Amino acid sequence: MRFSLARVVLYLLMTVAAVLFLMPVAWMLVMSILPEHEIFQPVPHWIPQEPTLQNFQELFQRAEEAPVMRWFWNSLFVAGTGTVAYLLLSSMAAYAFSRLEFPGRNVLFFIVLSTLIIPGQVTIIPVFLILQKLGWFNTYYALIVPGLAGAFGVFLLRQFFLTIPREIEEAALIDGCGRAGIYWRIILPLSKPALATLAIFSFLGGWNDFMLPLIATNEIEMRTLPVGLTIFLGRYSMQYGLVMATAVIATLPVLVVFLLFQRHIIRGVVLTGLKG
Amino acid sequence: MKRMAFPAHQRHEALVGYLFIAPYLVLFVLFVLVPVVWGFFISLHNWHVLGEQKPFVGFANYRALLRDDLFGIALLNTGYFALLTVVPGNVVSLLLALGLNARIRGEDVYKAIFYLPVILSVAVVAIIWRWMYSTEFGLLNYYLKVLWQFLHLPGEFQPVPWLNSPQTAMPSLALMSIWWGAGGSMLIYLAGLRAIPEEYYEAARIDGASTWGRFWHITLPLLKPSLLFCLVMSLIGSSQVFGQSYILTGGGPHYSTLTVVLYMYQTGFSLYRMGYACAVAYVMFLIVLGFTLLQFRLLSARGEE
Q1: Interior angle at CA A235, CA A121 and CA B245, nearest 5
Q2: Coil/strand/helix, residue A153
Q3: Least CA distance to B281: which residue of chain A?
């Protein structure tokens, strides 16, 4: 690339933008290892003079009032189990909608599809009342099951399944393979890219969800990290090192997922029109 | 014979189809379909969680909403939030995408940095920015002060009260939300830019078009589908803003950040007025539905050209 003033300016602007975008996250990481006397300073300490893990250690000592590790486990279990179940249920339904003939199929698919435009907040009150009637309040069921009913996975996977040639399936049928076998041994393995994209977004969504765990639980032991964080904020608002250490714990898993699957995520956003 | 019209293997296939769909369908009915219908039913009742009686009141909740000052404030605030985020946010996304599209070195790194905030939970975002916005110790006021002194601006620097004043609270939530979400639209714009054939630009260059002219006459018109998609999606997204004000300001100061969904949450889960809260939810649904239909119209109108 030839030297040109325009390109120097471009790099300068992009780097300034990148610094601005990175700063809040970097500051969270720095604050979580700052000792308390370095946090409340008129001049920000970007490079800690005495970096410490004390904030993280203190989290374990306060496990009674603020069980951060329990919240971590709740989030992990809810996001992990939710993702596996979501992929399984959505792909089964998508297989039926894309390949099997049964009366009412198109009407059903249209109904499922049309609910894509309904925001979750609209139905949150009836969902809350249903969870109470089922006796699921403060259980993992309440945190996982309502999320499995979303229409997006069915829609995305059906579109993908339609691109798999029918001939493969017909050949397998002739060889005596049943529908369940075709679904499990042919359709699913051929759909790994779509399933992976959906899995990543489902995990990130489950891990970061705020509203459902907020309304579906009130026991401190059943909170997930995002909701736990906000309780924490009220209770220890002056102990910012502690709050930041919890925020780091709430961020590390998604950060790891992001760094590992960056390319898939970026392609997935474009492919599915998803944001966040 | 009737059997001939509907042979055994077809009946078998239908049965298998229902079996495959059943687990999902049960949950779909229970947690999507029933709530949609039941929510409307609830909104027609005076439905208190603890009340024994849940009398039918018709559209009284909706009529009450029309006269409810707080609901009016919440609607206006939500509109204000949309105004502050939709166009400015998309401008940021588009600028970042244009920068990335210039084939810069380290493109993947820049792209990842701009997208990074999108993967964070609203709770984490709010906690980080609560500190950024701190009047005494916040990074923003500190760097504004440094900039103030560097530029030798007149007078003493007055710290911005960010979340603490009714004038600045909503713009602060908007700024944070733009940072949080810009990376998503950026990726869609970048894909849109990459789809524009290079020949168009070469032809324009030969014709002597300026950079600005090329952007105005080639890039923008060809990017229209992405622009419409992102604008309407962010409009729909911003009409549902909740976590930001719930966590950071609780709707304050002086109701300046009370949004529609926050109002629904408060009437439903603090005052237990479920019927009224459902009416709020349905009004919000109508608004979102309007935007969605607008999107379909705009996008299909594009396709017919």
Answers
A1: 30
A2: helix
A3: A122
Residue of chain A whose Cα is closest to the Cα of B28:
A149
Rounded Cα–Cα distance for residues B252 and B204 (Å): 52
CA distance A150 to A153: 7
Distance from C-alpha of B127 to C-alpha of B134, rounded to nearest angstrom:
11
Distance separating alpha carbons of residues B32 and A63, to the nearest angstrom: 37
Measured between CA atoms, how close is A28 to chain B, in angstroms? 6
Closest CA to A98 of A32, A179, A31, A17: A179
What whole-number distance in Å separates Cα of residue A274 and Cα of residue A271?
Answer: 8
Tens digits of residue pLDDT in A249-260:
999 999 998 989
Phi-psi region of B145 (alpha: psi -120 to 50; beta: other; left: phi over 0): alpha
Question: B116 — contact with chain A (CB < 8 Å)?
Answer: yes
pTM: 0.91
The verdict on a CB contact (< 8 Å) between A121 and B112 is no
Whether A96 sits inside 8 A of B21 (CB atoms) is yes
Helix axes A68-99, A240-272, angle to 10 degrees: 10
Identify whether the C-beta of residue A146 lies closer than 8 Å to the C-beta of residue A212.
Answer: yes
Which of B263, B269, B236, B237 is CA-nearest to residue B250? Answer: B263
For residue B7, give every residue at least 6 positions away whose Cβ sits within 8 Å of its Cβ, in sequence order, or none: none
Q: Which of B124, B251, B256 is nearest to B180 (CA)?
A: B124
Q: Which of B281, B124, B191 is nearest to A245 (CA)?
A: B124
Q: What is the pLDDT of residues B111-158, one digit of tens each?
A: 999 999 999 999 999 999 998 998 888 889 999 988 888 888 888 888
How many A/B residue pairs have CB atoms within 8 Å? 265
Instruction: Quickly count helices (H) and strands (E) in chain A.
Output: 15, 0
